[in-house]
Specification:
The structure is a single chain. It contains 1 helix and 8 strands, in the order βαβββββββ. By secondary structure, the protein is mostly beta strands. The chain is globular, with a radius of gyration of 15 Å. This is PPC domain-containing protein.
């Protein structure tokens, strides 16, 4: 495992930026261990809801965690608004960094992640495969 601290800047899309990390580092598996920061807008999919809910204003990222695969991310986020109300769910595209997002990623060079349809859950779920590291025997 290789850790990668990351800072996203104002205006960046949180999810799109995290999904680009794998390609940028030529990896095929990673976990977001933790993230904090702020957003000016968010798209969050709540449990058992098919679409995302838009949120706007000053939002604090209380926690961010998930997995990154070349064919998609699975990110959970907890946010608080200016009144201190807390919301959480799946982070979608359109989570826009307000001031900063400070994130710790674990890159996994010996593993390949993908998302495959799962008959039991009805969703594309994480599939894990061990791979030989680059230059490994």
């Amino acid at each position: 495992m290789q850790t990668l601290p990351l800072r996203l800047r104002p205006g960046q899309d949180l999810r799109a930026s995290l999904e680009s990390v794998l390609a940028d580092h030529r990896m095929s598996a990673a976990f977001v261990l933790q993230g904090i920061g702020s957003l000016s807008a968010a798209q969050v999919r709540f449990a058992s809801v098919s679409g995302t809910t838009a949120m706007h204003g000053s939002l604090e990222i209380l926690t961010l965690a998930g997995s990154l695969a070349p064919d998609g991310a699975h990110l959970h986020i907890a946010l608080s608004d200016a009144q201190g109300r807390v919301f959480g769910g799946h982070a979608g595209y359109g989570c826009i960094v307000r001031t900063t997002a400070e994130i710790l990623i674990a890159l996994l060079p010996d593993v390949q992640f993908s998302r495959l349809p799962d008959a039991e859950s009805g969703y594309r779920e994480l599939a894990i495969r061990a791979v030989r590291p680059p230059g490994g025997a």
